[in-house]
Specification:
The chain is 46% helix and 21% strand. The protein has 13 helices and 14 strands. A hairpin with a 5-residue loop joins strand 6 and strand 7.
């Protein structure tokens, strides 16, 4: 999706058209007026010679005819800036001037509709606020929901906004934000596949380009979702893919309408601007997720290293204990060997250490250095386990047979 941001700004702000009318007499008969004036008051026939209050009764109800009476009575002009005007079902804003005429009693009306400019300015203010939220690393759900609500509140015509987020594989779309769509509708489309002909959003995601469906009731893309759309009161859906800087799919930005509708260039510019904003928010979210995952991996690796070091310390301490025990047993065997020189077979165990052992000496052990000792079965087994060079001597009745028959 490529577009010139400056062109989008111009499309959003539009080209305002000046309105002009000459009114005469105390009843403010429309003597002449340009097409923009008749379009503004909603008179398709462009009728003249009729009092303005009759052509546009809502102007009288809102006090504009009274202002004209004041200008006609005082001869002093009146200027209004960015004034809200209800024109039937439409809300509009105007800069206008009521000037007293010099040729005949009457009023010259000159004005410029500022509705599009006003809405665009408000949207741009909301856009800046969204960018600030993204910079502050606000939660993605808050950014997307706020964006959708801002567009819905400020758009000139009713629109329902939806943002769907792409799965990492780009094959499915998940609910992101849709504050005004029915819950049953959001649940039904959560997880829809991306593919040609899968509604407006699935197709836009697959094609990586905007998909404009002006009438859901007849468009083949909506064959599988038409009944669902009717239940939700939806008649048109314009979807724009949300793309990353590298062209990867991030999601879709959709604008739904209650009636079939063809988009204006300002609508398309609005979609491009806010799809780009959504892309910034989603990419920032992905970056934060990746950073948190990396931090978690570092913490896990640090914990694993700490556990390995703790186990190594325990093994080292155990080895040191075994070495000390082996040294003590070797010393005992040295002492026993010296005793055996005078008394070959002692009555009591010689392997009890300093505490001594009163058990009978039943088994003889020796080491590769020629030292030998007699001991009870328990101390003999301890010596064999802890001193690798020790073995059971098979001489007399205290040899291997005595150990096996213990």
């Amino acid at each position: 999706m490529t577009a010139d941001p400056a062109e989008d700004q111009r499309a959003l702000f539009g080209q305002s058209t000046a309105v002009f009318a000459l009114l005469s007499g105390p009843s403010h008969l429309v003597e002449t007026a340009n097409p923009a004036f008749f379009a503004a008051i909603g008179d398709d026939q462009g009728r003249t010679g009729i009092p303005l209050a009759q052509l546009a009764p809502t102007l009288d109800e809102q006090g504009f005819i009274a202002l004209m009476d004041q200008v006609l009575a005082t001869g002093e002009a009146y200027t209004g800036r960015d004034v809200r005007v209800e024109l039937g079902a439409r809300e509009a804003f105007f800069d206008f001037t009521y000037e007293p005429r010099r040729d005949v009693p009457g009023i010259c009306v000159i004005g410029v509709e500022t509705t599009q400019i006003r809405h665009a300015q408000l949207l741009m203010a909301e856009h800046r606020a969204l960018l600030e939220q993204i910079a502050r690393q606000a939660p993605l759900t808050d950014v997307l929901d706020g964006m959708a609500r801002s567009i819905e509140e400020l758009a000139p015509q009713e629109v329902l906004v939806s943002v769907l987020l792409a799965d990492p594989d780009g094959l499915h779309l998940r609910h992101g934000a849709a504050p005004s769509l029915p819950a049953f509708y959001n649940e039904a489309i959560d997880g829809i596949a991306t593919g040609d002909g899968v509604g407006s959003c699935g197709t836009a995601a697959h094609r990586r380009e905007p998909v404009i469906v002006t009438d859901i009731g007849t468009d083949p893309f909506w064959d599988d979702f038409r009944e669902l759309a009717v239940q939700a009161g939806l008649a048109a859906c314009w979807s724009t893919p949300i793309l990353a800087r590298d062209g990867g799919l991030l999601g879709t930005f959709a604008m739904y309408h209650r009636v079939p509708r063809v988009p204006q260039e300002s609508d398309l510019a609005l979609a491009r601007v806010f799809a780009g904003t959504a892309a910034l928010a989603i990419e920032r979210h992905h970056s934060e997720q990746a950073e948190r995952a990396a931090e978690a991996r570092v913490r896990a690796a640090h914990d694993d290293l700490a556990e390995a070091m703790r186990a190594e310390r325990e093994l080292r301490a155990e080895a040191e204990q075994r070495a000390a025990a082996a040294a003590e047993l070797a010393a005992q065997m040295d002492a026993a060997a010296a005793t055996l020189a005078a008394k070959p077979h002692p009555e009591r165990c010689q392997l009890g250490g300093g505490a001594g052992c009163s058990a009978p000496a039943e088994i003889k052990i020796a080491d590769s250095w020629g030292d030998a000792a007699w001991g009870c079965p328990s101390h003999v087994e301890e010596a064999i386990i802890n001193v690798r060079s020790v073995f059971i001597a098979s001489e007399e009745l205290g040899g291997l047979a005595a150990y096996l028959n213990r």
